[in-house]
């Protein structure tokens, strides 16, 4: 075992301790990526199931004060009523599919029973001063039936968007049914919908596209990668040990050869 005494040197002790610490760390990182993969896959399955479910009347899933659940989010719903454009607001700092900054148009839809559904009719560009209320294309007049994806109320905690106070008139930062109920003085259904039909004749407001799926396979690849790294650490450590041993033995052999050679006369 004297051949391996070099492992007790300060350099090799530090290297060995680092290798020992890396193995469980990489294994834990692999399990974390596995958890993220399973979590994202479950969310993707939930969103896909909601998007492909048959449309239902909105009041079957939500009511005033209701909190839209994960299973209800993205469900396609229908509602019949009249748009109240006088109470319409715009949501600041929203982007379209091309990354352009503008507004989302939020219009109350007064249902046949008097309750109010918040309808996000889509995106419009921010042409002009941000303090001015933008020119908003009018929705269909009179009684209309709309279809859309049910969404949960926006909060700062969930979205990361700060709910700034003192905004210009009829401009908001977050779509929140409780706040809108106080502003409108009406019974507002929990959550809101992203309108998908009928589509605007001139394409404005630009309707919001379907949510994309999260990249769960990337987490799966990272999981495999971390576990391969964990397996490679002891292999790499043993490779370095063998190389160090070989180098030491070659150096010792060269020294013996030099010592055995006769001294020049």
Give structural attributes:
265 residues, 4 helices, elongated, alpha/beta, 2 domains, 5-stranded mixed barrel
Question: How would you characterize this protein structure?
Answer:
Helix content is 38%, strand content 21%. The protein has 265 residues and is an alpha/beta fold.
Report the count of strand segments. 8
What general outline do the C-alpha atoms trace?
elongated
Amount of beta strand: 15-25%
Mean pLDDT: 89
What would you report as the Rg, rounded to the nearest angstrom? Answer: 32 Å
What strand order characterises the main sheet? 2-4-5-8-6
Order of SSEs: HEEEEEEHEHEH
Helicity range of the residues?
25-40%
Give the uncertain stretches in residue-range form.
none
Distance between the termini: 40 Å
Helix-strand category = alpha/beta
Q: Helix segment count? A: 4
- Counting structural domains, the number is 2
Keywords: Cell membrane, Membrane, Transmembrane, Transmembrane helix
Membrane topology: Multi-pass membrane protein
Subcellular location: Cell membrane; Membrane
Pfam families: SURF1
């Amino acid at each position: 075992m004297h051949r391996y005494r070099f492992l007790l040197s300060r350099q090799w002790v530090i290297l060995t301790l680092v290798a020992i610490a890396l193995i469980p760390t990489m294994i834990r990182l692999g399990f974390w990526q596995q958890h993220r993969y399973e979590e994202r896959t479950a969310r993707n399955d939930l969103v896909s199931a909601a998007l492909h479910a048959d449309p239902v009347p909105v009041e079957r899933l939500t009511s005033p004060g209701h909190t839209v659940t994960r299973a209800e989010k993205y469900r396609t719903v229908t509602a019949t009523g009249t748009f109240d454009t006088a109470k319409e607001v715009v949501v600041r700092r929203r982007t379209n599919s091309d990354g352009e900054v503008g507004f989302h148009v939020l219009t109350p839809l007064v249902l046949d029973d008097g309750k109010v559904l918040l309808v996000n009719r889509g995106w419009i560009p921010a042409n002009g001063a941000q303090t001015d209320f933008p020119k908003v294309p009018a929705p269909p007049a009179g009684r209309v039936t709309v279809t859309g994806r049910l969404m949960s109320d926006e909060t700062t905690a969930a979205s990361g968007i700060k709910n700034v106070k003192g905004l210009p008139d009829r401009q908001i930062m977050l779509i929140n049914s409780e706040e809108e109920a106080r502003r409108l003085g009406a019974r507002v259904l929990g959550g809101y919908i992203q309108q998908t039909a009928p589509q605007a004749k001139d394409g404005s407001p630009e309707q919001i596209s379907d949510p994309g799926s999260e990249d769960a396979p990337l987490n799966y690849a990272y999981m495999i990668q971390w576990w391969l790294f964990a397996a490679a650490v002891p292999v790499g450590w043993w490779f370095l040990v063998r190389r160090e041993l070989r180098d030491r033995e070659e150096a010792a052999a060269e020294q013996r050869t030099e010592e055995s050679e006769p001294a020049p006369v």
